[in-house]
Amino acid sequence: QVQLVESGGGLVQPGESLRLSCAASESILRISVMGWYRQAPGKQRELVAVIFSGGSTNYADSVKGRLTISRDVAKRTVYLQMNSLRPEDTAVYYCPARYYQSDYWGQGTQVTVSS
Length: 115
Description:
Layout lengths: L3 E4 L2 E3 L5 E7 L8 E7 L6 E7 L4 E3 L7 E6 L4 E6 L8 E4 L1 E4 L2 E4 L3 E5 L2
């Protein structure tokens, strides 16, 4: 198993930035895929970005150019840098991981973008 703990959410104004963190209990090089999903009230959970064990990344079209996924292998942590935040980015952000063909999820962190 792998435990995932998200942090870094909060309340910000439109145009501001936040950085989310997802700390894993195992080496992230052994985790084939990690990423960020989000779920807004009344909506389905949607993919935001993923990073593969080799370091390649993919993004949802809606966040390209504003959100960046990265990792620190030594800290076993994946980050989501969110710039130019919009009210429609308001959601609970979750960090999933695929570890030995099983999927694990963190508890989520709330991001609210409002003036």
